[in-house]
TrEMBL record:
UniProt cross-references to SUPFAM superfamilies, sorted A to Z: Nucleic acid-binding proteins
Domain of life: Bacteria
Signal peptide start and end residues: none
InterPro entries, alphabetized: NA-bd_OB-fold, Primosome_PriB/ssb
Molecular function terms from GO: single-stranded DNA binding
The keyword DNA-binding is annotated on this UniProt entry: yes
Protein name per its UniProtKB record: Single-stranded DNA-binding protein
Keywords: DNA-binding
Organism: Xylanimonas allomyrinae
């Protein structure tokens, strides 16, 4: 059984993103993305990082989320696929490509952020661990741990 994989890119949003509508009325997110990548040389070594710029698009729910969560200057990891398309510029037909983003997140190595967790994502065990000392009458976790250590000592649990 093989591991399912997707194409991914890591890059910095290089232009102010903008929203538009598709021909059928759906949401479309567009931005330019700057990617720094080392290219392999014929001798097997890698050259210095080179910057390239590409079109980044998202549709539907991914576009709606990107609209509120991704700004110019953000570094993101995006999963999706490359789509080739043909368009006309000054009467000349051009073949181009864009990266269609299906999933994304900020690059944790280069982004400082805070995570706001809501109660419904916590497991019951995690909720018990964080509330247990107060429920048994201890004001702080340290007091609860000290009491547990003392109980273990008197019960012959010390080693």
């Amino acid at each position: 059984m093989s591991i399912p994989t997707r194409q991914c890119i890591v890059g910095e949003i290089a232009s102010a993103p903008h929203m538009s509508k598709t021909t059928d009325g759906g949401e479309r997110y567009f931005a330019r993305i700057k990617i720094k990548a080392r290219r392999p040389r014929p001798d097997g070594t890698y050259g210095p990082p080179a910057e390239t710029f590409h079109n980044l698009v998202a549709f539907g729910r991914a576009a709606q989320r990107a609209r509120t969560r991704v700004r110019e200057g953000d570094v993101i990891v995006a999963a999706g696929y490359v789509r080739e398309y043909v368009h006309t510029v000054a009467g000349v037909e051009r073949r181009d490509e864009e990266f269609v983003m299906r999933w994304f997140g900020h690059d944790a190595w280069r982004t400082t952020y805070r995570i706001a967790r809501t109660g419904h994502h916590r497991s019951e065990a995690a909720a018990r661990r964080t509330t247990a000392p107060a429920e048994v009458g201890y004001a702080t976790l340290a007091e609860g741990l000290a009491a547990a250590a003392e109980d273990a000592l008197h019960a012959g649990g010390a080693r």
